[in-house]
Known about the structure:
Layout: E1 7-14, E2 17-24, E3 27-32, E4 38-44, E5 46-50, E6 55-60, E7 63-67
Antiparallel strand pairs: 1-2, 2-3, 3-4, 5-6, 6-7
Amino acid sequence: MECTYDEAFDSLFIENRSYGIIETDSKSGLIDIYTGETVIPCEYDELELLWYTGLFNAKKKGNILSLI
């Protein structure tokens, strides 16, 4: 099986689901580990989980966005 991502990190358990931060071409994204579905596309410079809300801050071209 060919590797799809350049980097994968430890899973995150959020609201009874497991997610994984992934990286392709130095851009970060998020997948649902159970379904393999991309939840946040790999187009962000950084992703940071806000633990108490289940939201992510995403940095793209110097701008910070909040993503679900």
